[in-house]
Design a protein that fits this description.
single chain, mainly alpha, two-stranded antiparallel ribbon, 54% helix, globular
């Protein structure tokens, strides 16, 4: 059974709707019987009652990502707006109209409302503890992100700043901010923060729901196992403390930075520090898993990748590798589908987003290939051993991995081995963000193995698995402890440059702003409003519990 329509598919077929009910399918856990072609009782009951299927949930959540692009269109010049607007329209068309020959137990099954509620509740608890709405302490990265949200809540996109005689344009992946900022312009700054919290809970919670739903059993436990998935960073941290090269573990600290070169973040860390990258990365991985199960097509996967570029280009940078690996299993027959090429054409309409994100990108720090760095090989091998020991457990329990997903798991592990070899962005953002989708796929495979294997017959492997789970849980527990230990601080009203100036004394965060003169006139209007900035004019965080983060003092 192919994932896409026949080669003769036309644009009218894109809107043909989901497949007829009488398509026959077979395979483990499938909703269809090969002999009878009948729907499973749960799906048949859902269809007769008009209940919402998981396909509708997937489409609705995907539409939220596209909504940010729709808001982005309003600030573009006519040509750029026409291209991106057309991309949004066709993306929504693809998202809501599935390939005519794709069916499956999950995608056609009714929404499991209890599991969805549990997934949303778990993510909500973590997002609030992470400082969402500033009810609890928010990590240092939010000092800048709050300023971006505040600026966009006060002034619509595009936004420029006048600083020391020069003009700078706000140039960053703005996907996470645009919808909450639109709410904020109507309800105020706290309304924007509350909308941001709700949006992120929905997006991240939906991904957790998909992962848990695909688990072979123990789905409620799968939520916990996925969210607390992490490397065992506690081991190198203890080793460094014993060697006197690191401080103690209390007060709570981030224990994931134990090398000078890279970091693979735990899932809880992503919620606490970088939901703007986690949301598209988790969703991409969820759609890739469905595509590997033949419940989602490469056409929709392609347009969603393009639509999520505005959220985080690095979080979806591995999408082409996954797309090609899925196409390869059928000897690239999908590439003969007109539906796929129509989707690629729709994805290409997001070119203005790419151009916007590339404005002044050469100013972002890049270290390049790391192989020649002193001692790199030893650090690299230690890093992989500490960060993805789960791959060993999966290898030892390989028969428990779904046959349809095995190639995908191999590709994910391969990417996790390759990504650390090149450094891009401040703090090596490529490793932190580009690793998100393959880590999610590895986490799902690990969850599936834990739920499938009869550990009574393999006590040694079970003990190793328990140690990895327990050791890995320390990283998210330290993140949670930090949210509880440090007192919350008020939402800052400072603009981006003022906030950045107080943090590092310069006020020019190159990963957020670029010279206005380098913005093409066909993307943003050359006469866009400019916000004058007087850096250092106010104290942005007078009640912050860690003033060394916000007032580091002059650089020597």
């Amino acid at each position: 059974m192919r994932e896409n329509g026949p080669a003769s598919a036309s644009l009218s077929e894109v809107g043909a709707g989901f497949a007829p009910d009488d398509l026959r399918r077979s395979s483990e856990g499938n909703a269809f019987n090969l002999e009878s072609g009948n729907l499973s009782p749960s799906i048949r009951a859902a269809k007769s009652s008009g209940a919402l299927a998981n396909a509708h949930l997937i489409a609705a959540v995907s539409s939220l990502y596209i909504a940010a692009d729709v808001i982005f269109v309003a600030g573009l010049q006519p040509l750029a707006a026409a291209l991106t607007g057309a991309g949004c329209f066709f993306s929504l068309l693809f998202v809501w109209r599935g390939a005519p020959d794709l069916r499956g137990a999950f995608i056609d099954g009714p929404i499991d409302w209890r599991l969805l509620a549990a997934s949303l509740a778990a993510v909500c608890a973590l997002a609030v503890l992470a400082g969402g709405g500033h009810f609890f302490y928010a990590n240092p990265d939010w000092l800048i992100r709050d300023a971006v949200l505040g600026d966009l809540s006060r002034h619509p996109f595009p936004l420029a700043y006048r600083h020391e005689g020069g003009d700078l344009i706000l140039r960053a992946p703005l996907g996470m901010y645009l919808l909450p900022a639109t709410v904020g312009r109507l309800t105020g700054l706290f309304g924007a923060h509350f909308a941001l919290l709700v949006q992120n809970v929905i997006l991240l919670g939906a991904s957790v729901y998909v992962i848990a739903s695909l688990a072979p059993r123990w789905r409620a436990f799968a939520i916990f196992l996925f969210l607390f998935f992490s490397g065992v960073e506690i081991i190198p941290q203890i080793k460094m403390i014993m060697a006197g090269s690191a401080k103690g573990l209390w007060p709570p600290c981030d224990i994931e930075w134990w090398t000078l070169y890279f970091q693979y973040s735990s899932n809880v860390t992503e919620i606490f520090w970088a939901p703007n990258h986690a949301a598209p990365g988790w969703w991409l991985a969820s759609l890739v898993l469905l595509a590997a199960r033949r419940e989602y097509d490469l056409a929709r996967l392609g347009v969603m990748t393009a639509a999520m570029l505005l959220w985080s280009p690095l979080a979806v940078v591995t999408a082409p590798v996954f797309l090609l690996s899925i196409a390869a299993r059928d000897h690239f027959r999908d590439f003969r589908s007109m539906r796929l090429w129509l989707a690629m054409a729709a994805a290409a309409l997001f070119l203005p987003v790419v151009v916007f994100l590339m404005i002044g990108a050469d100013r972002v720090p890049t270290s390049g290939f790391l192989l020649g760095k002193p001692g790199f090989i030893a650090v690299y091998l230690s890093f992989l051993t500490i960060q993805i020991p789960h791959a060993y457990i999966i290898y030892k329990a390989w028969p428990a991995v779904d046959e349809k997903l095995r190639n995908l798991v191999v590709v994910a592990v391969g990417l996790l081995c390759v990504i650390p070899l090149y450094s891009f962005g401040p703090g090596n953002d490529l490793a932190m963000r580009g690793s998100i989708p393959p880590l999610v796929i590895l986490a799902y495979a690990f969850v599936s193995v834990v739920a499938s294997v009869d550990w009574r017959t393999r006590p040694g492997l079970g003990a190793a698995t328990a140690l990895i789970v327990a050791g890995g849980a320390m990283t998210p527990l330290f993140a949670i402890a930090g949210g509880l230990y440090y007192r919350p601080y008020a939402i800052s009203v400072c603009d981006l440059l003022t906030a950045s100036h107080q943090i590092d004394g310069e006020g020019l965060p190159d990963n957020y702003v670029a010279p206005r003169a380098r913005a093409p006139d066909w993307i943003v209007h050359p006469g866009m409003p400019v916000e004058p900035v007087t850096a250092g004019g106010r104290d942005c965080w007078p009640d912050h519990p860690l003033p060394e983060w916000t007032h580091p003092g002059p650089k020597l």
